[in-house]
């Protein structure tokens, strides 16, 4: 396969994943592969070449979203200000969760999301821990918390602040409460 | 009905509700009425007299748990120290949620929990708001938040801090982060 062909295949794969996420979030698991192919601008055969079964497609979506979160965490981990980077990562993750849940909840009925996530969770956890430790070392985050506290706070915030009756202003102030609480006393 | 008979009936009703909650949390909706009657120490006829259907029993459980939360909120609202009362209410509610969820999640499959809750939610919300405003007036809680922020923070914490992999120490520190964040900057 030449470089160009390989790049084409990768682009197609990404387009299919994006189209599938949009359609699943909007219409649920009953979306036909034809519609996904159409929105992605590829033939149905191309979809099946990349994802032989719907389960394979779902698993790839879960992995892609987790990989994206790892990327975001790594970008923040390379940020100049350790404390601001950590806080911005927390904020971004919570904001992103609403979008994630729409897809994940539907996919969760079809594949074992936890099993798929497990393969990348170690990498994500290590990156979040590095972000946290750097911010603590810089003196901007209380030192009595570790990864388990951060994950519990994050998962709670992702649920509590993304409930249907919570508007953007409430969410922003709620996140602010949470992030203030992470500062040293 | 004499006073004594009425008191007996009330006691029986409470015993049935308690037994039902314990058994439902442990064994799910398939628990037979016989077992509930046995644990409550009453006859099956008594259970049916108080709760003609399983749905009536489930709804009574949801209401009883909400009423208990309202009672707790009212007790704290009458507490001497406005700020400590508010913070203690938050802590108690989060601690209580683990127990609640075991029952509520199961009952949620059988009756519309939200509909049952709606009838008492106004009273609960008013009590929480009174607790919050009193604490804000006393200068111990940031003034830019209202009931929606408190409810979003509470519901998130109830989920995030009561996940199966969160131990007591992590939960305690997580709650501490949250409550510190509620203090004025």
Can you tell me about this structure?
Two copies of one chain form a homodimer. The first copy, chain A, is built from eight helices and no strands. Chain A is mainly α and 185 residues long. The first copy, chain A, folds into two domains: 52 residues, Arc Repressor Mutant, subunit A, CATH 1.10.10.60; 129 residues, Tetracycline Repressor, domain 2 (Orthogonal Bundle). In chain A, helix 1 packs across helix 2, helix 1 packs across helix 5 and helix 5 packs antiparallel against helix 6. The longest helix of chain A has 26 residues. Chain A is globular, with a radius of gyration of 19 Å. At the A-B interface, helix 7 and helix 8 of A face helix 7 and helix 8 of B.
What's the gist of this structure?
Chain A is an all-alpha fold. In chain A, 78% of the residues lie in helices and 0% in strands. The mean pLDDT of chain A is 91.
């Amino acid at each position: 396969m030449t470089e160009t062909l390989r790049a084409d295949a990768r682009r197609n794969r990404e387009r299919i994943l994006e189209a599938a996420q949009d359609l699943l979030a909007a219409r649920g698991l009953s979306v036909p592969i034809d519609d996904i192919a159409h929105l992605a601008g590829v033939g149905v055969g191309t979809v099946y070449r990349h994802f032989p079964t719907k389960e394979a497609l779902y698993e790839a979506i879960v992995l892609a979203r987790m990989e994206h979160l790892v990327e975001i965490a790594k970008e923040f981990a390379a940020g100049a200000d350790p404390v601001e980077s950590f806080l911005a990562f927390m904020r971004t993750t919570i904001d992103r969760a609403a979008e994630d849940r729409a897809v994940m909840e539907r996919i969760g009925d079809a594949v074992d999301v936890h099993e798929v996530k497990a393969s990348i969770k170690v990498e994500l956890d290590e990156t979040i821990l590095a972000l946290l430790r750097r911010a603590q070392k810089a003196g901007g985050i209380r030192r009595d918390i570790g990864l388990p506290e951060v994950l519990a706070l994050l998962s709670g915030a992702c649920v509590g602040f993304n409930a249907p009756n919570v508007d953007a202003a409430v969410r922003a102030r709620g996140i602010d409460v949470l992030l203030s609480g992470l500062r040293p006393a």
